Amino acid sequence: MIDRGLAHPWPQEVVDAARRFCxxxxxxxxxxxxxxxxxxxxxxxxxxxxxxxxxxxxxTLPADIPYGIITTQTCDVAEARMPRRPWIQVAPVxxxxxxxxxxxxxxxxxxxxxxxxxxxxxxxxxxxxxVEKSILVGREPIQVxxxxxxxxxxxxxxxxxxxxxxxxEHINSCLYxxxxxxxxxxxxxxxxxxxxxxxxxxxxxxxxRAFPRSVRVHFIxxxxxxxxxxxxxxxxxxxxxxxxxxxxxxxxxxQRNRIHDGNVVDVVVYDTLIPMVWW
Amino acid sequence: MPSLTPLLRREPLGMIVDLRxxxxxxAGPERAITELSGPWQRLFGSTSIxxxxxxxxxxxxxHVADSAQGIAFALATSLxxxxxxxxxxAKWLSRDREGGLASHLLGLALSGVLGGVVWHVRQEGxxxxxxxxxxxxxxxxxxxxxxxxxxFKQLGRWLDASDDEVATAVGVGRTTPYSWExxxxxxxxxxxxxxxxxHSLVAGLVNRASAGEYREWLYEGGAFRRIAALSGDLDTLxxxxxxxxxxxxxxxxxxxxxxPETESPDRSE
Lengths: 279, 269
Prior knowledge:
The structure holds two protein chains of two kinds.
Chain A: H1 12-18, E1 25-28, E2 33-37, E3 52-53, E4 56-60, E5 67-70, H2 74-77, E6 87-95, E7 108-111, E8 121-124, E9 129-132, E10 142-143, H3 148-163, H4 169-185, H5 187-195, E11 197-204, E12 214-221, H6 228-248, E13 253-254, E14 258-260, H7 267-272, E15 274-276
Parallel strand pairs in A: 12-13, 12-14
Antiparallel strand pairs in A: 1-5, 1-10, 2-4, 3-4, 5-6, 6-8, 6-9, 7-8, 11-12, 11-15
Chain B: H1 5-8, H2 11-18, H3 23-27, H4 29-33, H5 38-44, H6 68-79, H7 86-93, H8 101-128, H9 131-134, H10 147-158, H11 163-170, H12 176-183, H13 189-208, H14 211-230, H15 234-246
Helix pairs in contact in B: 2-8, 6-8, 10-11, 10-13, 13-15, 14-15
């Protein structure tokens, strides 16, 4: 249906321009707009909007957002074969007005400075504006990432925002909070235990992520068996987590820890587990 | 107008409340409440509490699961974990939902049903020689049991095992669990861990499978799974339970995976 509107062939200047951009490329003065219903507006900065679709009005973000960063995957921006993807997504890039002491929220991605000017610049991933590739004609790509490592990291952040596991709050309150409490009780011992771990992964009874019933935490060692001290530490965590789970919801059954030797882990099982970060 | 309140304040309810350590309660109130059949659902408005999963059928319920007694039992054991005390439950049931007569009829019907439940439980207790089930109703003291003792007794029922057998499985003496209950003192950390690890696993199976499937699974192949459970061999039991508890592993595509582009279905247009 949508393909019916595609030009055949595309204007050559658009094809050529698109091939100069990739994911993570910054463009200057991007168009920043979105739709809202004014009566129930959440973002209340006054705007002057004339464009309406029924009760939805088109709102432009303040003009002082100087840059936008392309979040569309590189192959979809610079299509090597017959182009079929006319649009790309762009997220706003700006400097924070007040100095930020604490760790920024997960939707603000700090960008390496240099190309954009002094100060710390952030990509704000809460909104991505759809624009046609035709806007790239006549614009200069600004490369903020000076290494492939940065590009990969940015792609991972973008991917993770949509791919991260949606789990019930009990996973946080019954499993993770006792873990944090145990870590802070004896940080040195916790550090020794964590040094032995390569990954922590979660197994949830099929079909019950939203309301988990049986769950099991898998611990994968860095290689070789875990020390007895580490195993006991993990078992003590299980004791506490099990108690929390029992009190929070009798239907939530925390199964016994499963410990894997990182040298001989079953990759089929490993692939099916939910990775847990920051454990 | 007659209501259920007087009946529900008698000891028989104490018995029922006391029996909420049955697997139905462990499975969670949502699942148990879905046991109610059509007319009962309409009467009690269970849709506001109901879940989507079928209730597990604990061993002791097998005899009554399909009967009205089973329904009442499920209701009683379901509401207690929801935080509804005896009085609340009684008050809730005595609400005049159908204009007096319905409430009266309901009172009569449920009186009979509850009596039947108690009778069935005692019969089952006699058959199994379980003093917990057959001691005089008046002697049953409602109130929470120790979590460890509750888990211990549940394991006995789920594994069709005596106190002695379950005690051996978790590495304690036969009467030790009764001291947990009498003295409200938890077992040692190691025993607690062993007990709850076994309990979580078996509870997961009981919740996941129907009563028939579970029992078939437990006794299949010379009952080696039951034997593993009662000998404390969690490794074997876990390996056997894994496909039931967690299903067949599904391949995931990791973030950052490369895959070839697909053709547009509209490309020919």
